[in-house]
Design goal:
single chain; alpha/beta; 2-enoyl-CoA Hydratase, Chain A, domain 1; six-stranded mixed beta sheet; three-stranded mixed beta sheet; 46% helix; globular
């Protein structure tokens, strides 16, 4: 993964001192996720797990946004295609959770839907105070099924999770830190520096201790697996029931 040729089209990867920087790379579309990009991301995480050079993953987005969610352009996709997109998202979220290596996300601009899932499935989330965040699946007629039902009640409590997910409201990076969805909120111009420093510190640390601690902490997430499985199933029903509104990559 550290050779001269980048094996991905829509994602840039670069390894420096054990930190693999992964950059979502569709800046002209605010890094919105296409089916091909989604497939690349699923493949990427399996390769990261096997890459001995990578100690830490630093995940960010090119340009002025982290990821605006799914790319909604193009004709409506078939029910089979929509279900395939949700399965890709399920695989992606599971891969991030099961990866023992720590993940740091650097979030500026918008992080919406499946883009927000990528940001918040990181172990340490560094977010711009003015970032715009939302899981708005309910506004599209689809149950929240990409990550939030699984992780948010543990991170910010059931009351806040219900408020944000049942309304689909937009909230800021500053609010995300205040309620516990993000680790650190800083001015936008400091996001990359702070995330780089945290990733470098983790890369210098005792790798076995860090990975085993992450594995143990994620045991709490594994207890919530039935809730996540149910949310994915309900999202699938919504996608099939709302053909004009269910074209997103979850």
């Amino acid at each position: 993964m550290t050779g001269a040729a980048n094996p991905y089209r829509w994602v840039k990867v670069a390894n420096r001192a054990g930190v693999l920087k992964v950059t979502l790379n569709r800046p002209d579309s605010l890094n919105a996720i296409t089916p091909d990009m989604h497939t690349e991301l699923v493949r990427l995480w399996s390769e990261i797990a096997a890459d001995e050079e990578t100690r830490v993953v630093l995940l960010t987005g090119a340009g002025r946004a982290f990821c605006a969610g799914a790319d909604m352009k193009g004709p409506p996709r078939s029910g089979e295609e929509r279900l395939a997109s949700l399965e890709r998202q399920r695989q992606l979220v599971a891969a991030m959770m099961n990866l023992d290596k720590p993940i740091v996300s650097a979030v500026r601009g918008a992080a919406i839907g499946s883009g927000l899932a990528l940001a918040l499935m990181a172990d340490i989330v560094v977010v711009a105070r003015d970032a715009k965040l939302s899981d708005a699946n309910v506004r599209l007629g689809v149950a929240s099924g990409d990550h939030a039902v699984w992780t948010w009640p543990l991170l910010c409590g059931m009351a806040k999770a219900k408020h944000l997910l049942l309304t689909g409201k937009m909230f800021s990076g500053e609010e995300a830190e205040r309620i516990g969805l993000a680790s650190v909120a800083v001015p936008a111009e400091e996001v990359d520096t702070v995330a780089d420093e945290i990733a470098a510190e983790l890369a210098r640390g005792h790798q076995d201790a860090i990975r085993w601690t992450k594995r143990a902490l994620n045991g709490w997430l594994r207890l919530g697996q039935p809730a996540y499985d149910a949310s994915v199933a309900y999202a699938m029903v919504g996608m099939l029931a709302n053909p004009m509104k269910g074209n997103e990559e979850s």
